[in-house]
Amino acid sequence: MQGAPCRRPPPRGLPQRRRRPQPTMTGPRLALAAALLCSCTSPVADANSWWSLAMNPIQRPEMYIIGAQPVCSQLPGLSPGQRKLCQLYQEHMVFIGEGARSAIKECQYQFRQRRWNCSTVDNTSVFGRVMKIGSRETAFTYAVSAAGVVNAISRACREGELSSCGCSRTARPKDLPRDWLWGGCGDNVEYGYRFAKEFVDAKEREKNYVRGSEEQARMLMNLQNNEAGRRAVYKLADVACKCHGVSGSCSLKTCWLQLADFRKVGDLLKEKYDSAAAMRISRKGKLELVNNRFNMPTQEDLVYVDPSPDYCLRNETTGSLGTQGRLCNKTSEGMDGCELMCCGRGYDQFKSVQVERCHCKFHWCCYVKCKKCTEIVDQYVCK
Ligand SMILES: *[C@@H]1O[C@H](CO)[C@@H](O)[C@H](O)[C@H]1NC(C)=O
Ligand SMILES: *[C@@H]1O[C@H](CO)[C@@H](O)[C@H](O)[C@H]1NC(C)=O
Ligand SMILES: *[C@@H]1O[C@H](CO)[C@@H](O)[C@H](O)[C@H]1NC(C)=O
Ligand SMILES: *[C@@H]1O[C@H](CO)[C@@H](O)[C@H](O)[C@H]1NC(C)=O
């Protein structure tokens, strides 16, 4: 990141990155803070992101006072463009936070058995410095976060939570049987997609990078992965129907567009992670394949520009937390196996007591009664 153009300091009066708002800050100190930001030696300053909306509870819309702006200036992690969108669409912010939260949860589920397990490290940078590396893991994180926003906003529209959108206006699918009704209130995935594009991509689009530079490569990578995430939600949204008619005869159906379960979006993006394409920046400022025997990625695919660190050891520079103390599976040969998880450092065994429901009996009518059984199981943690 050496020689990176200095980032513009945040506008006056806004909370400094990675700092609590300090209303008493005077001019010179503010300038000093800006100068520190501009030294470009601390990559963490830029790890700050709208993801932090997931970590800091946002007031519900009814708490907003129309015309009052402080909400947006107090939210941490927004870029200048995102702050403007916040002012225009204040009531959306709660749902962006919700989307980010479900994205983090999904990321942690998908990566629970891997060395990098998508853990959050703090409230401002959320995932920490590892996101400075343009790795596959970073690619997944951007994609799933963008997907989370599409998901949350699309649903909020359907639920009538936002004044600027309502039920989906998707046209009736051509292959829907004629006597089925099209017209239930569907998730507004078109609006969710468009809004997420505006909001999530804003940060990438507001800077001008030198053509062919590392920074430009990373910007193009982020944009591509954001798009892949949004498209995953769009693609998986499907028609859902409900039966009507005499006592469940289902002679009549009403159908609408419905988002897929977010787990499915996570699964699809995890597949995309496994097949992500390694790219590099050309002198003309386009991403190109490192190995051109492969197919060019489509807009649904993930791309990355840096190799992944091995995430084995704790490393302050890369932001890797390391795998010391992680549980591993002694018999598995996968990434969750002790050999790979512990990077060959070995592991400690300990006994742990697990309580489970057992000897469950069905009682007429209608409940199930179980006993509690305790079992002592061997567990393994990485050295
Ligand atoms: C993040 O913020 C929330 C709410 O403000 C707080 O409860 C939590 O302890 C914070 N976590 C960290 C790691 O600072
Ligand atoms: C941390 O990672 C960097 C970059 O891979 C490497 O150069 C450095 O030696 C590592 N530091 C430690 C303490 O392992
Ligand atoms: C993820 O990894 C970190 C660092 O190794 C660890 O502290 C944390 O407990 C892990 N989280 C889960 C859910 O395993
Ligand atoms: C460990 O891995 C083996 C083989 O993949 C699997 O059958 C077993 O269920 C795993 N154990 C745990 C506790 O996850």
From TrEMBL:
<dbReference type="GO" id="GO:0060070">
    <property type="term" value="P:canonical Wnt signaling pathway"/>
</dbReference>
<dbReference type="GO" id="GO:0031012">
    <property type="term" value="C:extracellular matrix"/>
</dbReference>
<keyword id="KW-0325">Glycoprotein</keyword>
<keyword id="KW-0879">Wnt signaling pathway</keyword>
<keyword id="KW-0272">Extracellular matrix</keyword>
<dbReference type="GO" id="GO:0030182">
    <property type="term" value="P:neuron differentiation"/>
</dbReference>
<dbReference type="GO" id="GO:0030335">
    <property type="term" value="P:positive regulation of cell migration"/>
</dbReference>
<keyword id="KW-0217">Developmental protein</keyword>
<comment type="similarity">
    <text>Belongs to the Wnt family.</text>
</comment>
<comment type="function">
    <text>Ligand for members of the frizzled family of seven transmembrane receptors.</text>
</comment>
<dbReference type="Pfam" id="PF00110">
    <property type="entry name" value="wnt"/>
</dbReference>
<dbReference type="GO" id="GO:0009986">
    <property type="term" value="C:cell surface"/>
</dbReference>
<dbReference type="GO" id="GO:0045600">
    <property type="term" value="P:positive regulation of fat cell differentiation"/>
</dbReference>
<dbReference type="GO" id="GO:0002062">
    <property type="term" value="P:chondrocyte differentiation"/>
</dbReference>
<dbReference type="GO" id="GO:0045165">
    <property type="term" value="P:cell fate commitment"/>
</dbReference>
<dbReference type="GO" id="GO:0005109">
    <property type="term" value="F:frizzled binding"/>
</dbReference>
<keyword id="KW-0964">Secreted</keyword>
<keyword id="KW-0449">Lipoprotein</keyword>
<protein>
    <recommendedName>
        <fullName>Protein Wnt</fullName>
    </recommendedName>
</protein>
<dbReference type="GO" id="GO:0005125">
    <property type="term" value="F:cytokine activity"/>
</dbReference>
<dbReference type="GO" id="GO:0005615">
    <property type="term" value="C:extracellular space"/>
</dbReference>
<dbReference type="GO" id="GO:0090090">
    <property type="term" value="P:negative regulation of canonical Wnt signaling pathway"/>
</dbReference>
<dbReference type="InterPro" id="IPR018161">
    <property type="entry name" value="Wnt_CS"/>
</dbReference>
<dbReference type="InterPro" id="IPR005817">
    <property type="entry name" value="Wnt"/>
</dbReference>
<dbReference type="InterPro" id="IPR043158">
    <property type="entry name" value="Wnt_C"/>
</dbReference>
<keyword id="KW-1015">Disulfide bond</keyword>
